[in-house]
Amino acid sequence: MTQVTAASKDLAACHVCCKLASSELHHCPRCGAAMHLRKRDSIQRTLALLVTACLLYIPANLYPIMITDQLGQSEGSTILGGVILLIHHGAVPVALVIFLFSVMVPIGKLLSMFYLVWTVKRHSRVTPRQRTVMYQITEFVGKWSMVDVFVVAILVALVHLGGILGIRPGIAALSFAGVVIVTMIAAESFDPRLIWDEMEEQDRGS
Amino acid sequence: MAAEQANISQGRSISGIWIIPLLALALGAYMVVHTWMTEGPEIEIAFKNASGLEQGKTKVKYRNVEMGLVESVRLNDDLDGVIATIKMEHQAIPLLVKDTQFWVVTARVGLGNISGLDTLLSGAYIQIEPGERDVGERHFVALERPPQTPAGAPGLRLKLTSENTSSVGVGDGVLYNGFRVGRIESMVFDPNDRLAHYELFIDAPYHTLVDSQSRFWDASGISLSAGADGIKLDTGSVDTILLGGVSFGLPPGISKGEPVASDTEFKLYDSYDDILKNPYRYGLYYTTSFSQSIKGLQSGAPVEYRGLPIGRVERVMLKEGLQNSIKTGTEGSGTAIPVLIYLEPGRIGLPDQPQSVEYLKKSIEKGVTLGMRASLETGNLLSGSKLISINYFKDVEPASVGELLDYTFIPSIETGLGQIEQKLNAVLDKINKLPLEDTLGEANTAIASLNATLASLNLVLESESTQELPEQLDKTLQDLQGTLKGFSPDSEVYQSIQSSLLRLNRTLGNMESLTRTLSGQPNAAILPSDPVPDPIPEVSK
Do residues A72 and A114 both lie within one domain? Predict the structure, then answer.
């Protein structure tokens, strides 16, 4: 299957206004933004941000995400600790939701992004369509993994009963927000067209 | 347009984006290092039980500042206690020294005070009281209850021992003339010496009131006594009636002693009356033993030295004596009965201090070699009560102090009625031993032979010749009378003898003048005598 791509016609799309212009141009003739054939240093940026996310993910899980001050006694709870506590209390569906969005989704995102970067780097030609779907899901789900941070933020704002009961965010809340933000930027900086470029070159070559 | 053509070079240059993960890494590394650097030590504290200790919740506080958190609570290896592992703060390191004390603060409601109410809401916490030593320590044993006195508080810590666990308890006051100057810090009953051991703390500046002559007595409760002079009620303050307490002071007649050091041990008397009965603290136990009857010798009987009371009889050690004789295999041989006596140097005017005891000890040791002996004497002839007297005796077998039943032994001597009794016994024994039987037998035979002699004498007397003897005697006497009549003054014989004697007298007179002449002039019988010229007196030159 041979397709005509912009790149094959020496055309590049503006990152900002999506105007197709000659790839030889440095700036978009319409909006004046910098023009590149592909996103600049896409692989490196994505990888760097992924590594950052991985680093941030460590304190996010080790430190308490939420500190409950109850009658002068403070008790911190980590993400996994909270999940286990909820299961013990019988709130399995809530536990599952939190586990899904706070543990499964960030890890899944990180792993899928690493896989995509790795395959592009290897010039792999395996199932580009599936990889594109994977990228789309990752990008979509990324917005929703902030659930945990939102929960904490709302609880901190709502529960504030002086010395009797109070909730404070822990270090993990910040780290976890960092993980989500950095992975979102990583997903954004990844250029999915790189998945297909290999196929183009193959087609052109054949 | 060649010049404007983008120079597309897929340079493998490292993107600046890598700063972000490096930054994250640096931040993480900083956090790790910082945590590691400021990480406090992990300590272990042994508790009797985990009451109030909650994993991850119970805090360690010093001056109400959080200094650590209980990380885990587990049983110890012997399963007889719990060990709490505690993560301490970095700044707590100087507090963790060898004599640092830990205890659990919970709400305590006592008769005297209520404390730790805040822990009802916040839960128990562990309190640190830092020690003063410089040696760091990571393993501690928690106190069972809060110390009554903070470490390093000025004052004096003393020890008390009591023979019976009285109503004095931990936290009770120590009173001086009814004023609270300290408190009981701990109480332990030791089953080995069967004494209750108290630790008390006298706050500064009242600790100067305690000296070596101070006496401590149990001031708890109410003492009620009825006597001839009415009913007497003794109480301390209302505090001590309800809570108990210890009072101290000087007994009457005893002068102030030396200041005492920390941890000096004192005896806790049961009551003030007890002190009045036994005002002396230092004394010595001795044993002595008696072979004579100790009937009437009772515990508490006086021991006197030349009539001065110097101690008392503690008890008759009959049981120990028997055991000792069984041990040494001399049972049944009439071993002397040991008696334990207690001598107090204070009673004879020596200062009531350990040196006096030493002095007494030496004096007795020397005295015994010089004839000092204990003897049993009757104190009261009517009741027969006895006392022990210590005195010097002459003509005693030399002896020295020995050891009997773990006490120094003073040899004894039998005197008084006992001695008389014994001497009488000895006399009777001697009389008993006389060979009366033999003597009587001999006398019997002598009498028998006398009898025979008398019988034969009778025979002689009964014979006719013997019967005639008086008549013959009569005749002889008549003859003698006739003879004597011839010499009477009227008779011729008497006259002639009389004239012969007169003549003899005259002859003797002549003889006398002759002998006088002869003695003056021996040659007078031969030569005619010359007249002697009269002596002429001369003038002395």
Answer: yes
Per DSSP, the residues of B395-422 read: S------EEETTEEE--EE--HHHHHHH
Residues A173 and A76 in one domain: yes
Across the interface, which of B8, B23, B121 has its CB nearest the CB of A72? B121
Strand pairing class (B265-269; B59-62)? unpaired
Pick A55's closest partner by Cβ from B15, B17, B24: B24
Dihedral in degrees, nearest 10, Cα atoms B136, B138, B143, B147 = 30
Instruction: Mark whether A12 and A85 lie in a shared domain.
Output: no
- ipTM entry: 0.72
**What's the full length of chain B, in residues?**
541
Tell whether A191 and A135 lie within a shared domain.
yes
A11 and A58 co-located in one domain: no
For the stretch B509-516, contacts whose Cβ atoms lie closer than 8 Å and that sit 24 or more positions apart, written own/partner, are none
Best mutation target among B14, B15, B22 (most A Cβ atoms within 10 Å) is: B15
Confidence (pLDDT) at B264: 85
| pLDDT band per the 50, 70, 90 thresholds, residue A72 | low
Successive 10-residue mean pLDDT values, chain B, 541 residues: 56 73 86 84 88 84 88 89 90 86 81 72 83 83 78 80 76 82 85 86 86 82 69 70 78 77 84 76 83 79 84 83 78 77 81 80 84 81 78 78 80 71 82 85 92 91 84 91 80 86 92 86 72 76 59
- Number of structural domains (chain A) is 2
Contacts with A49 from chain B: Cβ below 8 Å: 17, 20-21
Interface of A with B in 93-122 (CB under 8 A): none
**Cross-chain residue pair B8–A26, CB shorter than 8 Å:** no
Torsion of CA B349, B351, B352, B357, to 10 degrees: -90
Residues A16 and A48 in one domain: no
Q: Which residues of chain A neighbour B6 with C-beta distances below 8 Å? A: 23-26
Whether residue A31 sits in one domain with residue A105: no
Residue A143 structural domain: 40-205
Residues A56 and A13 in one domain: no
* Residue A1: pLDDT band with limits 50, 70, 90: very low
Q: Residue B21 is nearest to which of A24, A55, A58, comparing CB atoms? A: A55
pTM given for the model: 0.46
| Domain of residue A192, CATH code | 1.20.140
> What does the pLDDT read at residue B446?
93
Q: Which of B4, B13, B18 to mutate to test the interface with A (most CBs of A within 10 A)?
A: B18
Q: CA-to-CA distance for A8 and B31, rounded, in angstroms?
A: 50
CB A23 within 8 A of CB A11: yes
